[in-house]
Amino acid sequence: MFILIKRVFRTAWQGLVRNNWLSFTCISMLAISLIILSSILIFNNTSNNLINILKDKMDISIYFKRDVPEEDILKIRDDLIGNEKIAKIEYISQEEALKTFEEKSSRNPAIKRALEELGENPLAASLNIKAKDTKYYTEIINDIDNSAFKEKLITVDLMENQRVIERINSLSVGIKISSILVILIAAFLSLLISFNTIRMAIYSLKGEIEIMKLVGASNWFIRGPFLLEGALQGIIASFIATLILIPLIMWGSPRVESFIVEISMSLYFWSHFWYILLYQTLFGIFLGIVSSFWAMNKYLKV
Amino acid sequence: MPLVYFKNVSKAYNGSLILDNVTFEVKSGEFVSLVGRSGVGKTTILKMLIKEEPPTKGRIFFNDKDINKFKPGEITFLRRKIGMVFQDFRLLSNRTAYENVAFAMEVAGYSEQAISKDAPELLKLVNLEEKANNFPHQLSAGEKQRVVICRVLAQRPELILADEPTGDLDPINAWEIIKLLTKINELGTAIILATHDKEVINTLEKRVISLDKGKIVRDEESGKYLI
Fold first, then answer.
1. Residue extents of the structural domains in chain A
2. pTM score, two decimals?
3. What ipTM was reported for this prediction?
């Protein structure tokens, strides 16, 4: 068994080195396939991250009329916390709201002056509600809309919130579906590119395969080194693809970030570097082996 | 028991009959020449013997076993028992002379020690020990054919099929190959030589099966090329 493995490795390595132009072509094509696939995966993951960031930032703020006493608001908060769709509620008193507002507008003397002229706190107390899942926001808004305390609220732009929430939800679903589709198409294209290249390479070696058959070699004896050669090509292609991806990401990431700040492809790439290298290598090995297996079956029927 | 037995074998390609009800036997250790014009069916007979082609009709026996009933595993085993020498050599182009011989031995399941001992000896036997590390494109036609014979011998076959082995060789190299095949035959391996080289056949003075229009027209011990 050990001798057989040794022979398979030796033959595969010889094939890789001696058919250097064929190997170069196959590795180049495999690397291109892997670059396409990895770029799409990185972009999809970063855009999914963007959706998650947006979802995380999402909450509902309900503002109470200024004459509603604090105890009533706190009671409403305690009632709402029992709602199984709600994860967290934060009470912001009028004083806290003013303090935050003053901090935010400290560099704007006009606002400061306006507040001084008013002589009283114009801001309302509020409850910031975070749902357990973004899909619950619409329901929570409906619940609030139909609640007994609706009268105590200042007119809230519930409908506006609702629209944003629905848009983010549908965007998230859309991105997920299109991600899967694009990944599937890219995987299919990768398979097509590598399969056809390896098929052409094996076609040029069909004479050799036939000779091996006529000398009495079994199908697996012939197949073994070819499959291993395919796997080695996949591994080398993965490393080359990574070496090309690094400058590509370094160049492309700031350009994407200039449009959408939250999308940092380079951050994602470096934080997931080993994961990307691993799946890319595994996919490269898979492409190499599957393509070689399919391509050579035809010539083993001698 | 004959080593090879063709029983009423016919072969047609696209409706055109190449071999018509051919019957003959080859004994163990025998040297048989198949002669006839090009396209008469000599190569087809050899191809059918290693199951590269199936017969359209009839049965072919090797060591009393019907090779048409062989499973894929048995076919690979059959091909190790029947060595094939081709006119166009069919060496593995990206392997050296030594590696071509070693490959045949690996296929037959020889150990690394046996390969490193026997392969150089076989190459020495055909005066190619100094070209063991040459690739086929670095060898002359005669040298290539000698490597092919080494490859065949490496598997210690019971039968060697030589399909126009001298077709691409100059007269000197051609005679060296024929002498080599005769020597191998003297050591006990049966040989079927398909050729249309009149001079070779007439000098050999071995059994000759003459084919014409897909039929055996003559089968003589110590025969001559008479077509």
1. 2-55+169-300, 65-153
2. 0.74
3. 0.86
